[in-house]
């Protein structure tokens, strides 16, 4: 079998694969179907096959467990999940506020420590900070 014949044979196989009965090329095609089985793909640890009702299947990467992706997914699904998991969302919101406040406090401490650690090495730092505070006081009122 020559190279061109091999190439054509592979093109035909891939074209057929893309029309294989039950194969879903997008999640939207599976709406209303139920997951019946999850099958790991040998030697492809990061992917699985989800067998759905009605003979449908989809090849997918494993579920994301990175906090950034889970957070994005949770927030996107919130309108659909909040009625069912109201208390969990309240706790998540509380923990988010605690995390944000801890981040704000940590930034403040880092700034103050940077100033303190550099006062001896940069003698003019104090006068620059004083000028900056005076400038802030002379501008429109800011929260302190």
Structural notes for this entry:
Helix content is 53%, strand content 12%. With 144 residues, it is mostly helical. It folds into 2 domains: 22-63, no CATH class; 67-138, no CATH class. A hairpin with a 4-residue loop joins strand 2 and strand 3. The longest helix is centred in the last third of the chain and has 33 residues, at 86-118. The mean pLDDT is 91.
Please write the string of helix (H) and strand (E) elements: HEEEHHH
Give the total of domains.
2
Given the structure, what is the number of helices?
4
| Global morphology | elongated
**Order of strands across the main sheet:** 1-2-3
Distance between the termini: 80 Å
Structural class designation = mainly alpha
Estimate percent helicity. Answer: 40-55%
Strand content: 5-15%
Query: What's the total number of strands?
Result: 3
Largest sheet: 3 strands, antiparallel
Model regions low in confidence, pLDDT < 50 over at least 5 residues: none
Computed over alpha carbons, the radius of gyration is 29 Å
What does the average pLDDT come to? 91
